[in-house]
User: Fold this.
Amino acid sequence: MSLTNPLSDVPISDPQAMRALAHPVRLAALSFLQRNGPATATMLAPEVDATPSVTSWHLRHLATFGLVTDADPDEVPGDKRQRWWKAAARGFRIEPGDGPEAQAAYEVLGRRLFEVAREQIDTWLRDTAPGLSPEWLRVAGLSNTQVSLTPDELRTLDAQIDQLLGPYVMRPEADRPAGAVPVRVLRHFLPS
Assistant:
């Protein structure tokens, strides 16, 4: 699978992969691995609200679409006999195809991703925002801007945002400055 965009996101265009990822346990498992690095099914189970065996089954299903892979032995601590999983990339990008099956799968996954985004915002407002320093509160938050664009202009804008984010997303942990913390950037383009 080619990771040619500046964020090295996995492109998802297969309707079956979209449907697979729309499952709450699978999406939660992939998200956890992207945020936290390699884990076993047993470690993931409480994070995705499933048993280790069910979690393992879902991980194997994600692997059939190239979204997760076995972690390299030198990437994992402790017992190398356990099966450790890792995300294939730091993120993913949905690329809807043509035809009714592709559109239906895109809608199913899109709805689930909007639900997850709402949950992330609610959790951030409830658990994180109240504890932020004034400096972080001044730079955190939302923007809601309407702009008139053609499809080509929106593609260009999206690519430009990727170019801006790329160096920060791809920066090795050792190169992150002191005081850098994870920042979730939610991006929704909603043509009307």
About this structure: The helical segments are 15-22, 24-36, 41-48, 52-64, 100-128, 134-139, 151-170.
